[in-house]
Amino acid sequence: MVDAMIPLVPLAAADVADILTDLFVVLLAAKAGDELFKRIGQPSIVGEILAGVLIGPSVLGLVEPGEVLEVFAELGVVFLLFWVGLETRISDIREVGRTALLVGVLGVVLPFAGGVGLGAGLGEDGGTTVFLGAALVATSVGITSAVLIDLGVLGTRPSRTILGAAVIDDILAMIVLAVAVGIAGGEGTGAPQVGNEVTSILVVTALAAAFVAFFALGGTRLMQHRPQILKAPRFSESPLLPAVIVCLGLAAFAAQIGLAAIIGAFLAGMMVAETKEHHPIEDEVAPLYAFFPPFFFAFIGLELDLGELADAETLGLLALVTVVAAATKLAGAWLGARGMGGREALFVGVGMVPRGEVGIIVAGIGQTAGVIDEQLFAVIVGMSVATTLLAPPLLRSLRPATPG
Amino acid sequence: MVDAMIPLVPLAAADVADILTDLFVVLLAAKAGDELFKRIGQPSIVGEILAGVLIGPSVLGLVEPGEVLEVFAELGVVFLLFWVGLETRISDIREVGRTALLVGVLGVVLPFAGGVGLGAGLGEDGGTTVFLGAALVATSVGITSAVLIDLGVLGTRPSRTILGAAVIDDILAMIVLAVAVGIAGGEGTGAPQVGNEVTSILVVTALAAAFVAFFALGGTRLMQHRPQILKAPRFSESPLLPAVIVCLGLAAFAAQIGLAAIIGAFLAGMMVAETKEHHPIEDEVAPLYAFFPPFFFAFIGLELDLGELADAETLGLLALVTVVAAATKLAGAWLGARGMGGREALFVGVGMVPRGEVGIIVAGIGQTAGVIDEQLFAVIVGMSVATTLLAPPLLRSLRPATPG
């Protein structure tokens, strides 16, 4: 009964071997895609995403997207936004506050209306329609951030507007998703508990807004005045682990209250940035920022199932959803930013277009709630990947002048 | 039916939130334990392990050891041994080769005999007896390495002997474990396929030895002569990701052929070390070496279940097994190293004593095979933790003079 080879690689050890192999294959493929795309003058994250498609179930089938890879992908975008936060001063965001608010709000309202309109036009029922709206709402600031870093324009006004708008966008997206889940759940049970839902949504929205305000304002001020919290007599070595602990703590807290983890990571980065004169923290975070994010980009590609998109009807639906998603987000964000001037407003609009992992997460929730079927799931994932692949080359051609 | 709070933290997002929270709690606790133990003049890894005991199921129950934490723990010891490899030249190991071989062999034979003798004395059946022997065999070089780094003696002769012996030890431990699993499996089915087993074990042992020899000799030579493989025109940025890819690749390969992943990581570190004159690789690996290993040490503590050890009989058995495990390993390794002189041989002997994660893995395999019951599992885990906590203070007091 004992297979001749089995005893030598026992169960627990075999699991570890397979997971190490997956991590190795994903990192190798992402790095190869990155290098190749740099060489041909294309955005490296596009190369990493396509590498994920290549090694994933769609093409070679070397790697399946599983729980451990999902956690690495999540830490990838967490460390990416932590890095972006490290490069951002709260004063930069405050300066563009009004425009960012407008971009965030209009960039949510139009895509939601577009998604709901599209769902109604296709004759879907209420739950599915609202979910399609929700899936079109959220921006993946991770993708845009990586391109902004790549182009060296993170400090420019349009870039700061995108970052500020992304925070507003995520709070609104949380509300829209909560409403969508409530409606889908209510439909399923025939009992929409509207009163409870509204109260619960208001409470959690207030909590989320308070969290952002508290750490963005109070946290950054605290670090300005007490940078030694991260080092000095209390911590004997480098400030890296204390900084990473702040990052994981705020990311976990944001996720626990229903916000995206990356909002917490971004706030943590801005807090730690206030101590930069005192510690060489960026040099130490850089290797974590090099190691984790490739898992995030490759994972987006891993989740795409090209087989599901193979028939003409699905492809047509994908094209339609992608056009609506891109056009409404671009129009909404552009409207909000139009005071900045045409080219910069367009840059902001394009920067808000990628749906990345956020669209995929929303589609997954809709599938669990029973209102998104397999075809629509594949279409939303396809739209997320398509908007994510479209934006980087466009951003590159619209690249604003760097400050100073 | 829809709970008022559930919609706001949907399934996938809630999982991510919980895992981020676990990672945050483990890293915070480990760092706190580390800082506290440094302050009171004790080895910091002991503080990290005890922090794991504190937050784990034994005491506070804040964190359960799960798959994701296990992967982080594994990467912790992988990056730890990669770091040790970076600090080691293959010529250092070759110099102590003969002694290391003796230490490795005698440090396996005596503990195995001790475990089998103990099992027979306790009246256990054949499968259990052999497994007890296997559990007493393997050294956790991760624990000792961390202490050697901490003491600043990684470059000394006794330290290099320990590292070389650990490689031998792991190959022999793989054989012993394979035999034990074969016997346990054969007992279970009543059909020990001795012929197949022996062939299979010989093949895999030859493969393992060839793997180690190929990368230790050929790999390091390749890197000496072609350091640009990790950088220069082919890789545009830093050599970090190529180096990490080599590390993960060899770790995964070692694990796939039944060796410990850390053997592969150690060989990868030695290969990359040969390019050190050309790239500032250590500065870039240091943050990964700071981030991951605390998960390894804390995880050892998380796996300890003090509740299972609460009765006098079990405690007595734990004391007996721990004494046999420590005494036989110390005696075997000391015998092998006695040519180095009394104090240094004693240092080598103590350095081989910690069983760490390796004992726990073997116990888990025995439990799966049905020959290790709950009590004996808890005892072996307890022995692994006890030998791991014993060694660091002893090594500190025996600390050899640093070279040069």
Description:
2 copies of one chain form a homodimer. With 404 residues, chain A is mainly α. Helix content of chain A is 76%, strand content 0%. The first copy, chain A, has 17 helices and no strands. Chain A has helices at 11-39, 44-55, 67-86, 90-95, 97-121, 126-137, 141-151, 157-189, 194-225, 240-256, 261-273, 281-291, 293-303, 312-337, 342-351, 356-368, 374-398. In chain A, helix 10 (240-256) packs antiparallel against helix 11 (261-273). The longest helix of chain A is centred in the middle third of the chain and has 33 residues, at 157-189. The radius of gyration of chain A is 21 Å and the shape is globular. The first copy, chain A, starts with 10 loop residues before the first helix and ends in a 6-residue tail after the last helix.
Task: Map the helices and strands.
The structure is a homodimer of 404-residue chains.
Chain A: H1 11-39, H2 44-55, H3 67-86, H4 90-95, H5 97-121, H6 126-137, H7 141-151, H8 157-189, H9 194-225, H10 240-256, H11 261-273, H12 281-291, H13 293-303, H14 312-337, H15 342-351, H16 356-368, H17 374-398
Helix pairs in contact in A: 1-2, 1-13, 2-13, 3-7, 3-11, 3-12, 3-13, 5-6, 5-8, 5-14, 6-8, 6-16, 7-17, 8-9, 8-15, 9-11, 10-11, 14-15, 14-17, 15-17, 16-17
Give the structure's gist in a few sentences:
The structure is a homodimer. Chain A is mostly helical and about 400 residues long. Helix content of chain A is about 75%, strand content about 0%.
